[in-house]
Every structure is written in structure tokens, then in C-alpha cells.
Amino acid sequence: MKVHRLLLKDFRGVEHRELHLPEAGVVVLEGANEVGKTSVVEALDMLLTEKHSSRKSSVLAVKPVHRDAPTCVEAELSCGPYRFTYRKQWHSRPATALTVSAPRREQLTGEEAHARVLAILAETLDEGLWRALRLLQGAPLDTSVAGSAALAAALDAAAGGSSGGDRGDGADGAEDLLERVAARRAEFLTASGRPTARFRACGEELERAVAERDAAARALAEVAADVERHAALVAERARLREHRDRTAAEADGQRAAVAALEELRTRVRAGDEVVAQRARAAEEARAAVERRRERAEDAARRAGELARQEEQLVRLRAAEEEAAALTARLEEARAAAGEDADAARTAWSRARAAARAAEDAETLRRLAARLAAHEAAERDVAAARAALGGLLVGEALLRRVEEADEAVRVARAAAEAAAPRVVVEALADGRVLLAGEVLPAGTREATATGELEVAVDGLVRVRVVPGGGARDLAETVAGAERGLRAVLAEAGVADAAAARGAAAERRAAEGALALARQRHAAVGDVAQDRAEHERLLAERATAGEDDGGDGDGGRDGSAAAPGDVGAAREAERAARAAEEEARGRLDGARAAVAEARARREGLAAGVRGGEATLRVVAEEAERAAGQLARDRDGAPDEALAEAAAAAAAALEEARAQLSGARAELDARERGAADTLLAHAEAVLARADEDLRRTEADLATLTVRLELVGREGRQAALDAVETTVEALAAEHAALARRAAAADLLHEVLARHRAAARRRYVAPFRDKLRTLGRLVFGDTFDVELDDDLRVASRELHGRTVRWEQLSTGAREQLAVLVRLACASLVSPEDGVPVVLDDALGHSDPERLRRLGAVLGLVAPPAQVLVMAPGPGVHSSVPAATVVRLSH
Amino acid sequence: MAPPLRFVHTADWQLGMTRHFLDADAQPRYTAARTDAVRRTGQLARERGAEFVLVCGDVFESNAVGPRVVARALEALADGGVPVYLLPGNHDPLDASSVLRSPEVRSAPGVHVLDAPGPHEVRPGVELVAAPWTSKRPLEDLVARAVAGLPADGTLRVVAGHGAVDALSPDRDDPARIALAPLEEALAAGRLHYVALGDRHSTTRVGTSGAVWYAGTPEVTDRREVDPGNVLVVELDGSSPARVEPVRVGTWAFPLVRAELDSDESLAALRERLTALPAKDRTVVTLSLTGTLTLAQKAELDDLLEAQRHLFAGVQEWERHTDLVVLPADAELSDLGLGGWADGAVAELAELAGRADPGGGGGGGGGGTGAGADPLVARDALALLHRLAGGGSRA
Question: Is A94 on the interface with B (CB under 8 A)?
Fold first, then answer.
């Protein structure tokens, strides 16, 4: 497409502007900001795409702010073989007018004109290229130009592709097709190849329907199963009925047997009862007999008792009379004994008085003797005392004599010990004299306390003279002998022995005195005796006065001999014994009387008791006899005996019957009819139960089948089956379409990607060629499959697109578009529009870009919009249009 | 000799049947049509002075049909005012779930269920000898059992049976097959006078006696049925051969359309054939299409079928008997004017699509990675390409 002329009226701030553009080459629209440079491109777009009737906001936005005037755009364009003038007016009196001048003349207005232009553009304009080759102020610095079919065709041609590069509209169609295919695919599949919600929903719906269908099929199958079960149950019921009937018959037979058995048992029980009854009756009859016998015996016993009692009473009465007689006799004897006793007592009284008189006499005598003895003893004592008075040597003096004697002896012994001992053995009797003493034969010792002379008769005298010590000792002896003689003198005796005799004499006198005193003491105090003696004498005197006439010699005087006392005492003892005897007899008589009386009393009481007992016994005997008589009147003894015999016989009979029945029962019990019946009935009950359960199952099943019959499960299954079929068909169709779209998309996309990869090389070559003009010989670029610049290399350094400076990026963006424009064939070409695209570039780069611009155009139209002189100053061939308000 | 007997013999009403290929619009009309066929049968019986209508089995599609089906069927039965004898068949056997045992059927006026095997007196001198099915799998020839021991005593006897006749059924292992020869003997001997059968949906005369018939279904149920849609008006007098007159009562058709498509002419012929079919709203067409079409022709066929689908009660393709290969004509794809890399893609798809039919050489071209794709998918993809590329509209 080429733009030859463009007219804007009342477009935004532009009131009227008409541009005439050269066929090719760079046109620079130069003007200040907001002078309406961009509006030129906008106006062309709006003319080509918006209907004159459009009320879009973008259309309304171009209406002049301060003027109420219609916006009008007119362009003269050539496009492929077509050349036409196209005009539209918006906002008021909208209108469209088209005048086609080539290839053949056409004139159209309104909708038709709009449609015709769209058709022409669709046929001839590479829409993608048209959009790609403009670099608008403020738009992102995209370098993608891959959407262009014309470029694709050009690159295809450059890459030596198979299709002819002369069909510029074809590639455009392929790109569009791919878009439509992708859209189609997107109906079914997501980018990652998963089913879309709609597709998935259909699948899920199908799954649900299948599940429902399966459930319905199961429900129907349940019915089929129930039907089969029903048939099986019917067969089972028939079998069970037959079985039950058979079992029932068996049970009936068993039941009859058991009934017979029961009847027998009843009989045995009844027999037991009869036997028991009859046993009781027999026992009663026997008891009646026994009772009768006992009563008779009782009556007899009572009669005997009565007789015995009477007899005993007679005996008692006789004994009582006898006892009364005895009593009387005994009372007489007692009276006699009483008299005897009185006499004996009188006698004993006289004897006793006599005895006492004798005794008193005796006592007087004895007292008199004592008084005499007492007087004698007193005389003896006085004599002894008198004897003693002449005897001096007492014990103490004797002791002094003894001591002096001892001292003499001791002194003599000591003198002897110190004197030589002379042993003289006389060889013959009488011939040896020792100290003048003739010695018998034999050995004799002597001590020479003084001079000692031993002489044998006639033959020799030997004197033994002691030494000096012996004289001292002799002095001592002499002293002791003087002491002795003093004491002896005091005692009045000659020597110690005489002292001792005198002492013994005194001791004998003392003994006699003691003896006399002892005798005196032994007589004791005689004062009482004297008093007694005097009392007795007085008493005797009195008694002698009283006793005149009484013949009792016993007490008549102190002259009574001791024999008399004994006799008197003897007589008294005899009298007392007689009295005691008489009294004893009296006591015996009294006891006999008492005993006889008691006996008589007892007998009398026995008689009275016997009489009372007799009355009772008689009464009882009479009653018993009366009862017995009455009983016998009612039932004689023979009758009772007969009845007892009969009852016993009946009992025996019943027992015999019972044992018969019991034996039969025992025999039958062994047949175990009960067990068999129980078994038969259990089997029957089981059969009944089985049958009942089967019937119940059948009933349940029948009801269920009836209910199910009303449900119309087949209809339900059919309905859901239809749904499944429809959904399955729909799903299959969707799947088929999805598969087709997917395959188509995959193949197309793959081929396009392959083609793009092929296109990269020539495009890159072109871009590199142009880029080296701007950046120098070290420049290179990397492109991706979409022909986007991926990175730039300069001086051996590679920098990714995103990291490039804004200036570098805008320069590359311009270069990409220029490379496109130079690659696309002139027929397919569209104007390159660079609107304020180089604001960030330094003057050197701008200058070099200008060179590239000049190189690229012609043959392309390049429309550069700039706020002031810049890039175009280095494009010598540029047509400069200065814009102003 | 009893007076001549006239009755209507029918069978296989299959009430409650659902055809899944019918859409939500067609199914209720079809269901209504089956009931209408029953009603028309009753009317026919009245018009012809038939004594009764004998339905030889499969009155209902299943024992589990819905109550609505039963109610409407009974209402339609009552319409004719002629007694109706219903024989339980394999679809509605007299088992525990039997719909024919239901109180609704039992109490319907003029409706008799032949529920016991053997003779049922219709009137003095006329007996129906029934062979009802009591389960889905009988283990013997029910008819043979039902007719056993019947004498030739001048009684007019019509056998009511259901199932395959051995002469027609290839299934030797089926113990329930009805032996034809003994029946023909009995017919010849005058013990029986007509054998009314059900099970086969096409009206069929069996054997040589002329008195053994399948009435067929009064309303078509399947595209394979040869002569459905009839009931038989039967007249017997006991001496002359049975007079059997098929009368059409059905209003629906399930035609099978076979066509070999390989050219624009064959497409046009198919269009004419479909257009010529009558009563399209009661017709379900089954297509068996074979041949090879270009993309444009296939698109035309699709348009044609799409348009016809709206007219017919149903248009279905018999997949087993459909083998339509769609291949782009040489110019067809290049005419799309895609150019560039698209041409390579088209070539690859065409190559894929042509694989199933080595004879139809598709355009050569570079094989792509889509080599594993199904040729059918490739054909669909090509058709889609053709459509999206605007090939159809350009033609």
C-alpha cells in the first residue's frame, strides 16, 4: 500500500491539512509538539476501519473541541492493483465515498464503499505488516514483525522456500488461519492440551449419566435377580410343603402312641390313688380293731384296779385298828416307866447328897495335912539357914585359894623345868632311894630343883645340885607359897584340898537350904486352904445341925474314911445309872407311843386316801365299762374284725391291679414314644418354620416386585440410556473435533515455527547489514523464532534486548522495521511510519540512521515525524513537510 | 361345525420400548405411535368384525415398564371394544415381576391374559391353545407342550405361541425353539387350524401350510426388520385353508439408505433419495455410506445431512457399514491460497489422511511429526482446515 495523498478536516486540533506524499522515499513531517503529526496516522487508520456511522469513543474523541464541525478524512491510496480515493465524514452528515480508478473504475458510497474497501484491503494489504512497520510515539518498542504474511513471503523467498514469493496475500491467509485454528482448538483444549471447561463438563456429564445408567441397570438387574429368586422360592415352597405334610403325618402317628401312653399313665396314677385310699381304709379298720381292744383292756384294767383298791382299803382299815390297839398298850407302858423314873430320880438324889458329904470330909482331911506340911517346911528352912552360917569358904575364897595354889604349882613347874632332870633306873626293887624314897625297879625321872639325893641303898648317894637360875626360880616358888599360906589362913583351912572340902560342905548346906525352901514353896500358899478348911468346918457344923433325922450316914462327920467316899461315889453313880436307865425306858416308851400314834395316823390317812382313790377308780371303771358297752352296742368286735379283713383284702387287690398297670407302663416307656414325638414335632416345627419363612420371603419378594413393577425401572433405564447415548455421541463429536483441531493446530504451528526458523537467517542478514551502518562493523544480533531481537552484540559484547539502553532499543526497533520494509516486495509494501521514534538517540547515531533511511527508501515509503530537524538532516533525499497550526 | 372364525393376529407390540437414537422430540412421538398402532388394531378388529384380537407375546417391552405405559396401553386396548387375548412372551414372561399379572391388567375390561398353557375356550367350538412364557429362559418347546394330546374333534383351534421356529432359527442350541413339523402335521390332521406366532418383528409366513404366521410388530422397531408395521386379519372355517390378510397399521419407517459416494452426481442422487422419502417426521434413516469424497464434497454431504436431520425423526450412520474416505483433491488445498509454510502443513495432513487408503494417493510432501496421528483425525483436520480457510464458501 502506498499513500499518495491524505486530507484531514476538523480532525482533533487539525482544521485542515492536506499532505501529498511521494511514491517512495523518506517524507519528514516536521513540527512542534501537538501540532498533529500523530493525527495523520490516526486519521488514515480511522478512515480505513471505522464506519462513518460509528459512535465509538475513539471516533468521538477526534471531534474538534471548540467547533461543531464534521470530521472528514480523505485519502488517495494504491493497494495492489487498486488505486482509489476514499473519503469519510463523521459526526454530522456522515458519509462515505469511494472512487476506484484502477484497475477499473468503480464508484461506491456508504456501506457498500466501506465494504468494498475492506475487501480490497483484505485482498491486498498485509494487515500485520501495516501494523508492524509503524513505530508510534509512546508505544512499546516491540521488534516483532512476525505477524506479517508479506514479510513471511519475502523471507520465504529469501530463504529459498518452496512457495512462490509472488503471492503476497497467501502468507497473510496462513497466519489468519492459524489464529482461527487456535481459536477453534481453544474451544476444546486449553493451551496445555487439557480439555476446556465445556469439553470437560460434557465428559463429566457423560460419566454421571453412565453412572446413573449403571445404577438403573443394576436396579433392573435386581428385579431380574428377584424374579429368579421368586421362582426358586416357589419351588422351595412346594418342596417344603410336601416335606411338612409328610412330617405332620409322622407326628400324628407319634402323637397317638403318646396319647395311649398317657392314658396308661393316668391309669397308673389312678391305681396309685386307689391303693393309697384302700391302704388308708385298711389302716383305719385295723386301728378301729386295735382301739376296741385297747378300750376293752382298759375297762378290764380299771375293774381290776377297783378290786385291788377295795382290798387294799380293807387291809388298811385292819392295820389301823391294830395300830390303835398297840398305841393304847404302849401308853400304859409309858405311864409305868414314868413312875419308875420318878423313883430312880429320888434315889439318885439321896446318893448324891451322901457322896457330897463324904467328899467334904475327905477335903477337910487333906487340908489339914497340907497345913501340917507347911509348918514342917518352915522349920526345915530355918534349920538349913542355921547350918550354913558356920561355913566360911565360899566360892570366891575358894577361887583365890585355887589361884594361889596354881601360882605355886606354876612356879614349881618352872623351877623344875630349869632344874636338871635326873633319870634313875632302878635295877631292883627297893634298893634305890630317890630323895629318900625307895624306888621300885624301873626307870624314874626326877628334877633337881634343889638338892636332890639319889642313893642306892647302901652303896652310893648322889646329890644333884641346881645352878644359879634355879635359885631365882626357887624364890619365886617361895613367894607363891607364902601367898598360898595367907589365903589358906584366911579360909581357916590347911591346904587347897581342905579349902576345896570346906567349899563342898558349904555347897551342900546351900543345897539343903534350897531344898527346904523348895519344899516350903511346894506346899504353896496355905491361906486359901485354911479358909477352905474353916469354911468346911463351919459347913459341917451347920450340916450337923440340919441333919438330924435323915439316915444318911454319908455326911455325918469328918470321921468318914476315904473308902466311904468311894462307896458314896459308887452309890451315887449307881443311883444315877438307875435313874438314867429309868429315864431311858421312859423315853423309849414315849417314842414307841409316838411311833404307834404316827403309824396309826398314817394308816388312817391311807384309809382316807384309799377311800378317795377308790371313788375315782370306781367312777373311771364304770365309765370305761359304760363306753365299751356302748361301743360294742354300735359295732360288735366281730364286725370290726371283719371290716379290717375286708379292707386289707381290697388293698391287696388294688395293689395287684396297680402293679399290672405299672408293669405295662414300664414296658411301654422303654419304647420312648415321647422322645419320638418330641423329635417328630421338632421336625414338624422346623418344617413349619421353614415353610413360614419361605412364605414370608415370598410375600416380601412379591410385594417388592409389585412395588418395583410400579416403578417402571425399564423406563428409567431407557431414559438414562438415551441420555448416555446422546451424551456419548456429543462427547465423541467433541473429542473428534478437539482431536482434529488439535492435530491441525499442531501441524500448522509446527510448520510455521519451522518456516520462521528458516526466515530468521535472511532477516538477520538484512538487519545486520543495516545495523552495521549504524553501530559499526562489530554489530550483530540474535533473533528468536518470532523474529524478535533477542540480543545485540557490539565489540564482542552481547547484551540482551531488555538490558539495552532505550536509545539502543529505539534504534534497533527502527532498524527492524527498515529491514522489513527493504525485504518486503514493493507490491506488498506498506509505509514505514516512525513517529517521534528517535528521541533518545544521540546525533551520531541519528546521522547514521538517516543514512540507512536513505538506503532503504526508495522503493518504500517512509514517513518520519519529528519535532524538529534531526534524522532527516542526514537523509539528503528526504521530502520535508513542515507542519504548523 | 362351528361358524367361521375371524380374528386379528398381532404380536410384539413392545410397548414401552425406547429407541436411543431418537431424540427428545422423536421419542415421545414414537412412543405415542406405538400406542396408536394398538388403537388402530382394535379399530380394525371392530371394522372387520373380528371376534377378538390375539397378541402373541411381547405386549410390553419389559416387565419393568412404567405404570404410564401400562395405563396407556390398557386404555388403547379398551378403545376397540373387541376382547383382547394377551400371551406372555420372552419380554414380558409370566414370572414374579410379570406386568401381565398386575392388578391393572387383570382388571382391565375385555383383556384376557393367556396365563395357563393349553386350551382356553373363546366360545363353544373355538379354543385358543396358549403357550405362555413363564420365564425368560424356557427349557423346552412350549408350543409342543401346549398342543400335546389335543384331538381332532372339530373344535377350531388357534395356537398362540412365541419364539423362534426351528425352520427359521439357526440356533440349534436353543431348547425353546418351536418345532414346525409337528405343528404342520397337526394342522394337516385337523387338530389345529392356525398357529399364531410372535417374536419375529417382520410379518412372515412360515412353512408351507399357510396357517403358520408371525404377525410381526405393528410398528417398526428396528432398521433390520423386513416387513414390519402389519397385523393379520385371519379367517378360519375349519375346512378351507386359513385366509390371512396382512393389514398395515404402522406409520413409522426405519429405512436403510445405502449409497456409494464418489462424485458430485452421487451426492446429488443421495440428496434426491432422501428428499423423496415420505413422512420424514416418522422416519429414521440409517445411512450406510461408502466411497471417497473431496473436502468440498464432504462439506456438502455434511451440510446435506445436517439439513436432513432437522426433517427426519432421526438420521443415523450405520458405522459398521460406513466407510467414507475424505481426501482433498489436488487443487483443493492449493486453491485455499495459504502459501508459505501452511502448504507444508496441508501436505502433511493430506499424507496422513491418505494412509488408510493407499490407493487414493494424497499429495506428497514433507512428513511431519504428526505421523502417528489417526488418518480419521487427519481427515477431520483437513476438513476443518478447509472450512476455516474459507474453502467451503469459496466453492
Answer: no
